[in-house]
Design a protein that fits this description.
Domain MgtC/SapB/SrpB/YhiD N-terminal: 21-143
Shape: elongated
Subcellular location: Cell inner membrane; Cell membrane
Number of helices: 6
Main location: membrane
Radius of gyration: 18 Å
Structural class: mainly alpha
Pfam families: MgtC (PF02308)
Order of helices and strands: HHHHEEHHE
Transmembrane segments: 13-32, 41-60, 72-93, 105-138
Distance between the termini: 66 Å
Number of domains: 1
Strand content: 5-15%
């Protein structure tokens, strides 16, 4: 049935399954950190963002194989879309801004998925490692900074 619709050589699920699985695994620790910190986006959101970004790239591969400019437009759309989603995670309160680390994490998770989809596994792994290290290692160091709120929340105070 699929052969008639797609042709004999077009239905190969394994490479896509491996790539999407890897995107999921690389995003999982980021989601775990945000979930553990009780942020607005967490364990479900981050792997889904990576999988979606990877999926968009892989779904467009056959259409953009001969035109790198077309793939560049797909990547540009992902960058813009991730910025839009991240912007929704940022809350402006009376005298502070909250959610910037979650927004940045969403954006980089989209980059991880895109890197996996494009076959740049080394870039995807490094982005994941750097993000996880930043979120986990820098959190305790934040207590020593001047931006720490009395309630321990992840907020940045506005300059007056």
């Amino acid at each position: 049935m699929f052969e008639q619709f797609l042709g004999p050589d077009h239905f190969d699920i394994m490479p896509h399954l491996v790539a999407i699985g890897l995107a999921y695994l690389l995003a999982f620790p980021i989601g775990w950190n945000r979930e553990k910190s009780e942020r607005s986006a967490g364990l479900r959101t981050f792997p889904l963002v990576a999988v979606a970004s990877c999926g968009f790239i892989q779904a467009a591969e056959s259409m953009t194989a001969d035109t790198p400019e077309a793939m560049a437009r797909i990547v540009e759309g992902l960058i813009t879309g991730m910025g839009f989603i991240g912007g929704g995670a940022i809350l402006r309160l009376k005298d502070s801004v909250k959610g910037t680390a979650t927004a940045a994490s969403l954006w980089i998770t989209g980059a991880i998925g895109a890197a996996v989809g494009l076959g740049s596994l080394d870039v995807a792994i490094m982005l994941s490692v750097i993000t996880v290290a930043t979120l986990w290692i820098m959190a305790p160091l934040k207590h020593f900074g001047h931006l720490e709120q009395e309630d321990g929340s992840d907020e940045v105070r506005k300059e007056k």
